[in-house]
Amino acid sequence: MASNGTSVAEGDKANQEDRLSALPDDILIHILDRLKTRDAVRTSVLSRRWRHLPGVLSKIILHVGSFKPKDGSMLAKDDLRIRSNISVIEATQSILAHKSQCKINFLSVGFYLREESISIAHSINDAMANREIVSTKFMILPEKHGIQRMEDDKIICGKRFMSFSYACPRAFGCLKQLILTCVRLGNSDFTDVLSTCKKLEYLQLISCDFQPSVLQMEHPTLIKMELVVCTFGSVDLKSLPKLRTLIVDTWMGLEEIYPLSFGYVPQLSTLKLTYKGTTRDKNIKLSEFLGNAAIGALHLDFECGRIWIQPEHPKLLAPVLRNLQIASLTCIHEECNLTWIFFLLEAAPLLETMHIKMWDHECKTSEDEELYQKEGTFIASMRKNIMHKKWRKDSRKVVCTVDDVCKPIFITNIIDTRKNIELQPFENICSYFVPIFNYVMQTSPKIAMQISPKTDLIPTSVEL
Fold first, then answer.
1. Which of 32, 57, 82 is the last residue of a domain?
2. Ramachandran area for residue 291 (φ above 0: left; ψ -120 to 50: alpha; else beta)
3. Which domain holds residue 353?
4. Which residues form the F-box domain (predicted)?
C-alpha cells in the first residue's frame, strides 16, 4: 500500500509539472521575467521544454554582486572579483547566444573593467544583429578598490574603456544608462563616448578624472546626470535639451571659474550641489552661475564647511529663481548663522518648501574663525524688508523642516497680515532658530507663543 501511495503522489507531481510545462511560451516567459535572472536561467535544467526559455527573456539583469562563488569567504578579494566577473561574462554569453528573434526590453550588466570583460560588449554587439534590444544599462566597476586604485590604474582603465566603446559600437549605441567608475578620460575621449551612446538618458560618473580641463557636454537625449567626486576644471553644459536633473558632488574648487556653466538646458528642473567649501574657494553668485536655467528644486549640501553661496539682491536673483518651489540646505555647520537664507525667500516667489539640516560636527580647523559666514548688514536689511508690498498680495506657505541637531518641524505662513499666521508645534527649539522666530515676531507681532520650561515651543494660531 505504501508503494502504491508513493506512486500516486509521484504521478500527481508529474501531472502538475506537465501542466506547467504545457503553458504557452509567452506565459512562461512572463513568469520567468518576475524572477531574478540567475534564478530564471537555472530553470533551463528542468527539462527540454524549459531549455530555450532563458534565451527569450525580455528582461535580463546580471551583476557581479549576484555571482559570488559559494566558497567566496575562502578567497582573496582579487580572486573573488575575478571569479564573479567570469561568471557574469559566461552568463551573458550563454543567454545572448540563443538564436532568438524575441525582443529584449531591458538588459543590465554590471561588471569589473577587466580585459576579458570586452566579451560582454561583443556578445551584445553580436546579439543585436539578430534581435532588438530596446534599453541597455552598463555598470562598470573598477578592478581595484581603496588604496589599490592608483592614478596609473585610472589611465589603464580609461584606455580599456575607450577600446571597448570603439570595438562594440552597437552595444554602446543602445546604451540608455551608463555608470562609469574610476577612469581617466581626455575631453575628446568623453566627447567620443557621448557621440557613440546616442540613446543615453542617464549618466553617472564616479571618481573619474578629466584633469583641470573644461568638459564639454552636448547630447540630445540625456535626462539625468550625476558627477560624484570627479576631477575637472569646469563642466560646460553646452546643449542638453532634455536634461532635467543634475547632481554634482564635489569639484576642484578653482578660484577663477565656476564648476558649471549652463548653456542650453531648457528642461533643467532639479539641481543638487554638494561641496565642502574653504576660504580659498570662489563664492557662487546664483544670478551669474545659473545663467539661463530656471530650476524648480535646488539642493545645496555644504558638508559642514564654508557657506559658498553669495547673498544677492532679490532683483538680481528673481530671473533665475522665478520657478523655484523647493530649496534644501543641508549639512550646515552649527556655527553658521541661518539668517542668510532670507535672500532665497524673497527672491523666489513660488517657493513652497525649504528644508534645513544642521550638522553638529566636532572637528575644528585653523581657518574656522573666518570659515563661517556671519550676519552682515545686507542680510539684516533683507530680513527686515522681506515682507515687502509684493509679498503682501500673495498667499503662500513656506514649510521649513530641520532635523539632525534640533529635529523639529518649523512651519510658518508668509501671507497677508490680515489673515491667520500659524506656527505648528514642534519640540526642542534651539538657538539656531532664534533669528528666524525673532523675525517672525517682528513682522507679525500678534502671534501668541508659549514656551514651556523644557524649551518646547507651543505656538498658537491667532486671528489678526
1. 57
2. left
3. 301-362+393-404+429-459
4. 17-53
- The DSSP secondary-structure symbol of 135 reads E
SS3 77: helix
Query: Where does residue 146 fall: left (phi above 0), alpha (psi -120 to 50 degrees), or beta otherwise?
Result: left
Q: Is the pLDDT of residue 362 over 60?
A: no
Antiparallel, parallel or unpaired: β 457-460 and 448-451: antiparallel
Does 328 map to a domain?
A: yes
Q: Are residues 133 and 86 in the same domain?
A: yes
Chain mean pLDDT for the chain: 72
**Residue 101 DSSP one-character state:** -
Residues 234 and 311 in one domain: no
* Residue 381: inside a domain: no
Q: Decide which of 57, 82, 109 is a domain's last residue.
A: 57
Alpha-carbon dihedral angle through residues 287, 293, 299, 300, given to the nearest 10 degrees: -40
Quote the crossing angle between the two packed helices 118-127 and 77-96, to the nearest 10°: 10
Strand boundaries in 275-333, DSSP class E: 297-301, 326-333
Q: Quick one: average pLDDT of 140-156?
A: 76
* DSSP secondary structure letter of residue 141: E
d(CA 378, CA 415): 23
146 and 247 belong to one structural domain? yes
287 domain residue, yes or no = no
Tell me how far apart the alpha carbons of residues 356 and 341 are, in angstroms, rounded to a whole number: 10
Q: Are 139 and 161 in contact (CB under 8 A)?
A: no
Which pLDDT score, from 0 to 100, does residue 201 have? 97
State pTM to two decimals: 0.74
What's the 3-state SS for 380-427?
A: HHHHHCCCCHHHHCCEEEEEEEEECCCCCEEEEEEECCCCCECCCCEC
CA–CA dist 355, 73 (Å, integer): 43
pLDDT of residue 37: 64
Same domain, 46 and 76: no
Q: Please report where in the chains the cell 524572477 appears, as a residue.
A: 35
**Residue 64 and residue 81 in contact, taking contact as beta carbons nearer than 8 Å:** yes
pLDDT value, residue 194: 93
Say if residue 118 is in the same domain as residue 248: yes
DSSP symbol at 462: B
Task: Verify that 50 and 84 share a domain, yes or no.
Answer: no
C-alpha atoms less than 13 angstroms from C-alpha of 336 in its C-beta half-sphere = 27
- Asked if the structure places residue 6 within a domain, the reply is no
Please report the pLDDT score of residue 48 as a whole number: 57
How many domains, in total, are found in the chain?
Answer: 3
Q: What was the pLDDT predicted at 343?
A: 77
pLDDT at 101: 74
